[in-house]
């Protein structure tokens, strides 16, 4: 019998995007690119493509819990990320299982609204996110509108960004990454990192493209993969930023709307 290879394992708890650009699909593609064994717990199935979200179908609560049990009873993720969690009730149950199985290295991507405007998490779930998920988070990775919704702070200045990061830290996340994709900065995009003491800003050139569907999912999945390898949070964030930059720069021609990023850009770009 051949010798089995030890691998790092990462879990995503998120929604399915039938179009393959965001959600579970983006996460698993990214895990694969990083050489990490990917697992998934699906909260909801979305009928979605590059033009928008056509439907949202939650997995029955029992099915959600059974997936979490199945993973926990056999497979221990070295790191996990959450994406679209659908509702406050689902968030509460997911937090319960994360604690039950003592899972660590948790990246909370507080997905709320799709780029096209579709609601992926009810507003009633904000409190559950604050109360149950943020205290479990090694890293929370909101975009600007999500950080505003979770803190009630309008982010339009450098000071308000720091203030919002402090509030998210106080809500329990060890590291806060406020992503800059939605910020109107000329030619650049800056992600802002806060760990309760210091601030780090990662800036790169803004790619002029409409194909940014799934950027947040892909970034947080790359970060989770790096944490699964046991990397420090700072180094994992830097690596994730490099990966998403490359994936956006080498965009692919898929669909007629807001296309996905190129998950395999590190490896092979397109074909003849
Ligand atoms: N046009 C761009 N050029 C370069 N980097 C970008 C661009 N847009 C976003 N990014 C980067 O992509 C990552 C995700 O940021 P963004 O603010 O878009 O998250 P998001 O809104 O949660 O994404 P999504 O909802 O599409 O999954 C960040 O690291 C950000 O800096
Ligand atoms: C299942 C699922 N999860 C997350 C997103 C967010 O990605 P985006 O904001 O790029 O639409 C999405 N559209 N669908």
Give me the secondary-structure category.
Answer: alpha/beta
Helical element count?
8
CATH fold type:
UDP-N-acetylmuramoyl-L-alanine:D-glutamate ligase
Q: What small-molecule ligands were found?
A: adenosine-5'-triphosphate, (4-amino-2-methylpyrimidin-5-yl)methyl dihydrogen phosphate
Describe the fold and architecture.
The protein is α/β, with parallel strands linked by helices. The protein has a single domain (9-249), classed as UDP-N-acetylmuramoyl-L-alanine:D-glutamate ligase (3-Layer(aba) Sandwich). It contains eight helices and nine strands. It has a nine-stranded mixed β-sheet with strand order 3-2-1-4-5-6-7-8-9, with helices on both faces. α2 (61-72) runs parallel beside α3, α3 (88-100) runs parallel beside α4 and α7 runs antiparallel to α8 (233-249). The chain starts with 8 loop residues before the first strand and ends in a 23-residue tail after the last helix. The model has no long low-confidence stretch (mean pLDDT 95). The structure holds adenosine-5'-triphosphate (ATP) and (4-amino-2-methylpyrimidin-5-yl)methyl dihydrogen phosphate. (4-amino-2-methylpyrimidin-5-yl)methyl dihydrogen phosphate is lined by residues 14-15, 17, 22-23, 46, 48, 83-84, 111, 114-115, 120, 213-214, 216-217. One of its GO terms (molecular function) is hydroxymethylpyrimidine kinase activity. InterPro entries: HMP/HMP-P_kinase_dom, PM/HMP-P_kinase-1, Ribokinase-like. Keywords: Kinase, Thiamine biosynthesis, Transferase.
């Amino acid at each position: 019998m051949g010798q089995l290879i030890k691998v790092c394992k990462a879990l995503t708890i998120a929604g399915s995007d039938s179009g393959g650009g965001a959600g579970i699909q983006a996460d698993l593609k990214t895990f694969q690119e990083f050489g990490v064994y990917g697992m998934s717990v699906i909260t909801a199935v979305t009928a979605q493509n590059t033009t928008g979200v056509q439907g949202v179908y939650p997995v029955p609560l029992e099915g959600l819990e059974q997936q979490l049990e199945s993973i926990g009873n056999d497979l221990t993720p070295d790191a996990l990320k959450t994406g679209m969690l659908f509702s406050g009730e689902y968030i509460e149950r997911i937090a319960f299982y994360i604690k039950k199985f003592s899972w660590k290295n948790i990246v909370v991507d507080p997905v709320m609204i799709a780029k096209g405007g579709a609601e992926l998490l009810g507003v009633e779930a904000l409190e559950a996110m604050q109360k149950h998920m943020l205290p479990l988070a090694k890293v929370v990775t909101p975009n600007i509108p999500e950080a505003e919704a979770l803190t009630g702070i309008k982010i339009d200045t450098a000071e308000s960004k720091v203030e919002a990061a402090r509030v998210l830290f106080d809500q329990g996340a060890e590291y806060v990454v406020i992503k800059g994709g939605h910020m109107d900065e000329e030619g650049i995009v800056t992600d802002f990192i806060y760990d309760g003491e210091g601030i780090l800003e990662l800036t790169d050139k803004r790619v002029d493209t409409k194909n940014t569907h799934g950027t947040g999912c892909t970034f947080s999945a790359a970060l989770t993969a790096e944490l699964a390898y046991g990397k420090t949070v700072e180094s994992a964030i830097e690596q994730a930023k490099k990966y998403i930059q490359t994936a956006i720069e080498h965009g692919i021609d898929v669909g007629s709307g807001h296309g996905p990023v190129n998950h395999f850009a590190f490896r092979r770009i397109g074909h003849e």
